Amino acid sequence: PMTTVAVLGGGIGGLAASYYLCKSPQVTKVILLESSSRFGGWLWSTRRSDGAVFEHGPRGIRPAGAVGRNTLNMVEDLGLGGEILPVTYTHVASKNRYVYVNRQLHRMPSGLSGLLRPVPPFSRPLLLSLATEILVKKGKEDDESIHSFVSRRLGKELADIAVDSLCRGVFAGDCRKLSMRSCFPLLYDAEQRRGSLTLGMLLGSGTSIQESWAQWSLSRGLESLPESITEYLQQSGRVQLHREAAVQQISPSASGWKVSEDIYIYIYIYIYIYIYIYIFNLFPRLYSSALSSILPSSCQPLIQLLQDISTVTVAVVNLEYEGSVLPVAGFGHLLPSSEDRGVLGVVYDSVPFPQHNRPDGETTRLTVMMGGAWFQEVFGAPEAATEERLLARATEAVRSHLGVSTAPSWSRVTLQRDCIPQYYLGHHRRVESMRRFIREKSLSLSVIGASYDGVSVNDVIFSGRTAAEELGAV
Ligand SMILES: Cc1cc2nc3c(=O)[nH]c(=O)nc-3n(C[C@H](O)[C@H](O)[C@H](O)COP(=O)(O)OP(=O)(O)OC[C@H]3O[C@@H](n4cnc5c(N)ncnc54)[C@H](O)[C@@H]3O)c2cc1C
Ligand SMILES: C=Cc1c2[nH]c(c1C)Cc1[nH]c(c(CCC(=O)O)c1C)Cc1[nH]c(c(C)c1CCC(=O)O)Cc1[nH]c(c(C)c1C=C)C2
Fold it and tell me: Where are the membrane-spanning stretches (predicted)?
């Protein structure tokens, strides 16, 4: 049957779902409703008039695996191939990874020598941890925190320092609460299937082809991606794009869903209500809680499950310094929660992407990420946090971690509220129950976006594709 599909939310997930849907002969019309004045959600870049580019959301996309290849195919299809800025595995930004521990920057162990001898801040050679890991018995729990899983298999020190900081650099979250199974499904599977992470890594999953890029960006910033998808959708002639169209309520009707937002759109959508309308929820700024607030009370169990997925707030502080000020080269450094609860890490944007520097003259661009699961504890309520205070804390971190005592020549503070969903223990069961409820009630609804099956840009785009495929599209 020919269908009209409503996509709620024009973040990268909603745009990707619309992109795949509009390629399907089965879908006659797509209506994309975005509450804010721009599409792209967290993909948000500042392009200064002098040519410098700063990212306030994601800054590097990793091309590995099927989800990574999928995004690159989309990028090529959109004609953005010529704008890709790749960072190879041999680039210093890929080879050098740092943690700031005991008031010092430490390069993370790498290569053979890094495996064989202990490298501070670690007291054991990594090889020893990996070798003994093979002998550790498989866990019996259905779900386990990342910290507990890694302490059990690789030792407490790696869990406290390396994994604690890694989780802050990906989820801005607390590895003692995050679920191993939902956050790192490949490693969880390695234990389940091979009984060991080391063996799992050595034997491989059999599918990954070694790629030469560690990550990539786009010459005018990652926001070019949602911009290009929007253009593509406009040109397709099959997608109606609406900005400033916040969905307030959706309710089931005999033939699909009734979608209501502000008056103008309400009337507009109403015309299409008698056609079968599928609703894709694309993850709202308020994430799962935004979907829960627009669902009817007949969906109470679903509303509850959605509300149980929490999110964290991150303060993103972009800084520009005159001259080449960094004492080290790498992608950036992370801090374990034992070192500083408020500052998650610092990205050395100029190292992987010097093309985004101001073209005339030498500058260094850095981004300090703060808060996350510790936001409230350190900075208080997000609405009360002032830009001045966040900026002062960020420049102080750059001074003490990297020895840069000059003041930045340019800065921008963005408070990204509720920006990263947290997959706490039991997350997989919540998502399963949600999908079961939708199936059992035969609701023509798909839930996609960062709240469910992965938080990276690649995962979110792939979830849009999967939902479109389930509708017979693609
Ligand atoms: C600071 C930061 C850094 C990141 N870094 C990386 C990185 O380096 N690499 C990486 O892969 N990923 C990164 N991510 C993750 C990635 O950017 C996000 O997970 C992804 O962009 C989420 O996309 P989404 O479409 O699910 O949600 P969103 O981007 O939140 O989109 C949802 C959209 O729905 C709209 N909306 C909300 N409510 C309604 C309503 N009622 N009606 C209509 N519209 C509504 C919102 O305005 C929004 O535009 C980062 C995220 C953040 C915040
Ligand atoms: C959802 C939010 C994400 C943030 N970054 C990523 C996502 C999906 C992508 C990402 N960032 C890092 C990894 C680890 C794996 C790897 O290959 O290194 C992934 C998948 C690590 C990282 N993130 C930041 C830094 C400085 C690093 C260390 C890099 C390295 O060791 O090479 C910066 C940073 N990005 C995010 C946050 C919250 C953050 C905090 C400092 C968001």
Answer: 263-283
